[in-house]
Design goal:
Layout lengths: L2 H30 L5 E6 L4 E7 L7 H29 L1 H6 L12 H5 L9 H9 L10 H12 L5 E7 L10 E2 L6 E5 L12 E9 L9 E2 L5 E6 L1
Antiparallel strand pairs: 1-2, 2-6, 3-8, 4-7, 5-6
Helix pairs in contact: 1-2, 2-6
Amino acid sequence: MDQVTLDGCTAKVDRAEIHVQAFTDEWRIFRESNPYPSWVEIDKETGWHHVWFDFSTPAPQTLPVIVGEYAHDLRSALDHLAWREAVERIGLAQAEAKAVAIKFPIHKRRADFNSAQALKYVSNDARTLMEAHQPYHRANGNALLALHWFNREDKHRTVQTASVSLLQQLGMPPDFLECTPGLPILDWNMAGAVPYRRLKGKTKVASLRFDPSGPDPQVRVKGTPYLHVGFRD
């Protein structure tokens, strides 16, 4: 593998890291704008305090665009490696004639990988390395499969932000809630804490029940809980 190709691939990976930071910054700015108002509803008969958020505000459209650029850089780096392997094995003229078929194969099934056109033009060593990282070696696929899907979809349309999930919070009460100090909590649950659960519109994310013999609790929401954004077709 020539150094020029490796340097180019490294530059693409470095550029992808810049996109990761851009995504992080964009998401942070959006969250800091307090896009999801919250409130507490009290059931005086049962003692439950229900914490609600309104997730009606859509996430910025810049998020899928940034992720698309990130996916393109990484996918392109892999394809550059496959191209250089083909050039070294069959020569530039033949590689250019077969350019459409020469790309880094990513498949969920071994049979599909074995029939990939690019394998005809790369060395056995390159084939072995490509095969070792295929998604079918992992029960739930891998990052390459997600990369392949996102890059393919993003070529044809903007991939929409499809879900915003409230990640599991630890501690009692959850760290985005503030309660009367020292007040006994009999029970609590995180209704919206299931990973990848779609949060849409008005959603109850937590419930707390206090000692009925104690003082009237004061429950406040200190800020937006930690959220994770997901993309689907």
